[in-house]
Design goal:
Blueprint lengths: L5 E8 L8 E7 L4 E6 L4 E2 L10 E4 L2 H5 L4 E5 L5 H4 L2 H8 L3 E3 L1 H12 L9 E3 L5 E4 L2 E8 L6 E7 L4 E4 L17 H10 L3 E5 L12 H14 L4 E4 L5 H13 L3 E5 L1 H12 L9 E3 L11 E5 L9 H6 L13 E4 L8 H13 L3 E3 L14 H11 L3 E5 L3 H13 L4 E2 L6 E6 L4 E5 L4 E5 L2 E4 L3 H12 L1 E8 L10 E5 L11 H15 L2 H4 L2 H20 L4 E8 L1
Helix pairs in contact: 4-8, 5-11, 6-7, 14-16
């Protein structure tokens, strides 16, 4: 008798971390499965640990191998950590993509800003709509979040229904878009939900997330009270916040000037999709200097301290069009993402040094999270009543707290997993039944590298201990043609005794060559390796660090 199909779940990113989201659902037996991918996002490089790496993406080699069985990719919403890897990774997959109007339009605008983007068609599904993708029936259920048209996905199969929440919160007054659809979620619970795969970002925070309407009221009050110029920075994708800033400017009789390409792009797409209307006027940065100080508001990119974004350039006083002076005000309508504290702190200090008043969410309600706190998580569980809950979208602490809350709320089965775990959802008892290949890809300039790539490993070592370059010219008889050349990059000039490190390394190179038997001196590889080891040992003795050492041996 044929075994019944299994429904499986495997996260390839976004579990044990915040960012780089990619989930896959499988339906079939262990020899043959159909797959559905949900989201394909990035996380951002950390200059300290990954110098020169702009973006980190999930490794999709498993899906490449299963390309013929990949039915499609569904997007919950258009934040970078959920759709930012598509342009780079879609050519490896080649599958159909499904999204609602705003996500599709923002993706199209993003592609238009690239030099040579691949042609990636997106099938637009209406909010609240359904689509059959292979053996999966997917329903887009509206939820509140910090970008328009965020959706939970009800994924229906013969084995059962999974609710993949995506990013969500409960906001009865969201400014833009529909509130989280409680009625439909309760109906799903009545129909029966096999598994809830849910957002854990704020599982450590008690209570409920405040509403966007409360933030809008605070921003309106602060802009009205400001005396000089005002700049507001927020996530460009938060159209509700952009609209709140425009409304606050209107109320204070100020013109809104948009500063930063990402902000310009979102404003354009939001207007095309009907989320901004004729009353929301936006000017380009060229107009900034034309208005009196009390009649202008700059809406800027750069809330996370990005060095090339508008606010960083303004704080460094090197923006070509926008300047701030003593008595002006900057409102950070955002919360700093962990890891960006140093960069944001540098910008705030730069602004304060210029005499600018800086307002953050520490003093006023100028930002709210787009993710559910603990009471909202309890509400979702009570509406949906899943047989199984799997926490995702969070670091280890967030996942553990969400799991603990779910058990206390009476969910029959709760399972935590890691990226790469293959989880059987049904039929029968759920559990981890294997692993699929997973990992990270680094975007280094225009090239994708895996996490073990030489460039990434060596650059990190070079950042810590520099690099020693040695060039040696030898005759075929094993004699030096001339003095060796030594170049030390990223190292101190002198040791603790004040002696030049260049001279010390030079002497070590010469003495090492002269101390080798003639046969080894005639072998370029053996000679190079001997010199490399001697130079690293000498620098470690003099400096306490072992740099990368590159030795070039030329035989003439």
């Amino acid at each position: 008798m044929a075994r019944p199909d299994e429904l499986t779940f495997a996260p390839l990113g976004g579990v044990g971390e915040i960012g780089m989201n990619l989930s896959i659902y499988g339906l079939g037996n262990r020899q043959q499965r159909s797959f559905l991918a949900v989201d394909l996002g990035v996380s951002f490089g950390d200059e300290e640990h990954l110098p020169g790496i702009d973006l980190i993406m999930p490794d999709v080699r498993f899906l490449e191998k299963e390309r013929n069985n990949l039915m499609g990719l569904v997007l919950t919403h258009a934040h970078e950590d959920h759709f930012g890897a598509i342009i780079d990774l879609w050519p490896k997959l080649g599958c159909k993509i499904y999204a609602t109007q705003f996500s599709a339009a923002l993706f199209e605008a993003k592609c238009a800003a690239e030099r040579n983007p691949p042609k990636i068609p997106i099938t637009v599904i209406p909010s609240g709509g359904r689509v059959d993708i292979g053996p999966f029936n997917v329903e887009f259920i509206p939820v509140s979040h910090s970008i328009p048209e965020s959706h939970a996905l009800a994924i229906k199969t013969d084995v059962g229904t999974v609710l993949h929440t995506g990013d969500w919160k409960i906001d009865p007054t969201p400014i833009i878009g529909q509130p989280t659809d409680e009625r439909r979620l309760r109906e799903l619970g009545d129909e029966g939900v096999l598994a809830l795969v849910g957002d854990s970002t704020n599982a450590v925070r008690d209570g409920r997330s405040p509403s966007e309407t409360e933030v809008a009221a605070t921003i309106k009050k602060l802009v009205k009270a400001a005396k000089g110029r005002v700049a507001v920075t927020t996530f460009a994708s938060n159209v509700a916040r952009v609209r709140a800033v425009a409304d606050a400017a209107n109320a204070a009789d100020r013109e809104v000037v948009v500063v930063g390409r990402a902000m310009e792009r979102v404003v354009q797409v939001a207007r095309e999709c009907g989320y901004l209307d004729a009353s929301h006027k936006f000017r380009s940065a060229d107009y900034y200097g034309h208005f009196p100080a009390d009649k202008v508001l700059a809406l800027c990119t750069g809330s996370q301290g990005e060095p090339r974004a508008a606010l960083a350039r303004i704080a460094n006083d090197d923006h070509p069009q926008v300047t701030l002076n003593k008595g002006d005000t900057v409102i950070f309508s955002s919360r700093t993402i962990p890891g960006n504290e140093k960069a944001v702190g540098g910008i705030i200090n730069g602004l304060v040094t210029q005499g600018v008043e800086v307002i953050t969410d520490r003093e006023h309600l100028v930002h709210v999270s787009g993710h559910p706190r603990r009471d909202e998580l309890r509400d979702m569980i009570s509406w949906v009543r899943p047989q199984l809950l799997i926490p995702v979208h969070g670091e280890a602490l967030h996942l553990a707290e969400h799991a603990k809350l779910a058990r206390a709320a009476g969910v029959p089965k709760v399972l935590t997993c890691r990226n790469g775990d293959l989880v059987k959802l049904g039929p029968g008892d759920p559990g981890i039944i294997g692993e699929v290949p997973s990992g990270r890809l680094y975007k280094d300039g225009t090239i994708l590298e895996d996490s073990k790539s030489r460039a990434v490993v060596e650059r990190r070592r070079m950042g810590f201990a520099g690099c020693a370059f040695v060039a040696i010219a030898m005759t075929q008889q094993g004699e030096m043609v001339d003095e060796p050349e030594v170049d030390l990059v990223g190292m101190p000039e002198n040791n603790a005794a004040g002696e030049l490190l260049d001279d010390i390394v030079f002497d070590v190179v010469v003495s090492t060559i002269e101390g080798l038997p003639r046969a080894r001196r005639r072998d370029p590889d053996a000679l190079g390796e001997s010199v490399r080891r001697a130079v690293r040992a000498a620098l470690n003795e003099q400096w306490g660090k072992k740099p990368i050492c590159v030795v070039h041996v030329l035989t003439v």
